[in-house]
Automatic annotation (TrEMBL):
Gene3D superfamilies: Nucleoside Triphosphate Pyrophosphohydrolase. It comes from the Bacteria. GO terms for molecular function: bis(5'-nucleosyl)-tetraphosphatase (asymmetrical) activity. This is MutT/nudix family protein. One of its GO terms (biological process) is AMP biosynthetic process. InterPro entries: Nudix_hydrolase, NUDIX_hydrolase-like_dom_sf, NUDIX_hydrolase_CS, NUDIX_hydrolase_dom, Nudix_hydrolase_domain. Residues 4-134 form the Nudix hydrolase domain.
């Protein structure tokens, strides 16, 4: 058995529409989460997050702030993978939803008050809670 390390970056992307805040979620195997993907060797984490959001969802977003990271373990064949995912708060700047069918089932804009109940993993809920705190600091969400 060998242990391999993986490093990914992703984003909690928000957009404002008619006084409502929406958060971009992806769905894969009936699990909801945030768009993310592997960081290339020469790439900065922030750049990887922007690229992966675009690749997986078709959406252009800009990084506003770092939210934190999560780590977890999983198995891939005979390997044990120790994965780190670095998340950023990101603002929608353009593009249409166009899910990358090879990677995810769907991408959707979810009203902010429905996001936590849709998220499948506690680690994602923790990142979302940090994102909401940052949005409150930016006066995007009522306290």
């Amino acid at each position: 058995m060998s242990v391999k390390w993986e490093f990914s970056a992703g984003g909690v992307v928000f957009k404002e529409d008619q006084d409502q805040i929406y958060i971009l979620l992806i769905k894969n195997k009936d699990r909801y989460g945030f768009p993310k993907g592997n960081i290339e060797r020469t790439e900065k984490r922030e750049d990887a997050a922007v690229r992966e959001v675009k690749e997986e969802t078709g959406v252009d977003a800009e990084v506003l702030d770092y939210l934190g990271n999560v780590e977890y373990w999983y198995r891939s064949g005979v390997d044990t993978i120790h994965k780190f995912v670095y998340y950023y708060l990101m603002k929608y700047v353009g593009g249409e939803l166009n899910p990358q069918k090879e990677e995810i089932e769907s991408a959707e804009w979810v009203p902010i008050n429905q996001v936590e109940e849709k998220l499948s993993f506690d680690k994602d809920k923790k990142i979302f809670s940090l994102a909401v705190k940052k949005l409150k600091q930016l006066s995007k969400v009522n306290a």
